[in-house]
Amino acid sequence: MDSWKRSFVTRLHEARSRCARQFEDTLERFVVPAFEDLAEFLRDNGFKTSSPLREPERRSFKFELAENAYLLMIFRFAGVGEFELRTETFVPGVEPVLEKSGGRVLDIDASWAQRQFQAGLDRFVDLLAEGTSAEPAEQLVTA
């Protein structure tokens, strides 16, 4: 590889690393405080809250009401200036709901982070109400 190519690859790697750090910094500035703001309130209302995944370029936030009833939100760096948000909602009696969206890192602020957590929690509670109001499925009994 000639010197220009080596230099180019080095600069490209540095630029990508800088963008990944910007994503991490944005999570720390806006998403983590929004999570922590909701966590105390939710713990007072029976939830366990945690951040089980803390890896470079990926962070998750979990809101657990029971072992089989929880909301998991995963933020992942998806490339230069972009991220992916994956929301996984698990409620007994209801098929798991998996949603994925993307966006620009520059669009993340405190208000946006709070809206994402609140919307996910609203869907979780709505699914929980749906699952608990469903009539039990008939069971086939064989002798």
Provide keyphrases for this structure.
single chain; 143 residues; alpha+beta
Describe this structure in words.
By secondary structure, the chain is α+β, with helices and mostly antiparallel strands. It has one domain. Helix content is 45%, strand content 32%. The chain is built from two helices and six strands. The chain has helices at 3-43, 110-133, and strands at residues 48-50, 54-55, 58-66, 69-79, 82-91, 94-104. Strands 1, 2, 3, 4, 5 and 6 form a six-stranded antiparallel sheet that branches. A hairpin with a 2-residue loop joins strand 3 (58-66) and strand 4 (69-79). Helix 1 crosses helix 2.
Secondary structure layout plus pairing:
Layout: H1 3-43, E1 48-50, E2 54-55, E3 58-66, E4 69-79, E5 82-91, E6 94-104, H2 110-133
Antiparallel strand pairs: 1-3, 2-3, 3-4, 4-5, 5-6
Helix pairs in contact: 1-2
Structure at a glance:
With 143 residues, the chain is of the alpha+beta class. It is built from two helices and six strands; from the N terminus they run αββββββα.
Uncertain residue segments: 136-141
State the order of secondary-structure elements, H for helix, E for strand: HEEEEEEH
Shape: elongated
Structural class: alpha+beta
User: What number of domains?
Assistant: 1
The proportion of strand residues reads 25-35%
Summed over residues and divided by their number, the pLDDT gives a mean of 91
Whole-number radius of gyration?
20 Å
Extended strand count = 6
The helical percent reads 40-55%
Distance between the termini: 74 Å
Largest pleated sheet: 6 strands, antiparallel
Number of helices: 2
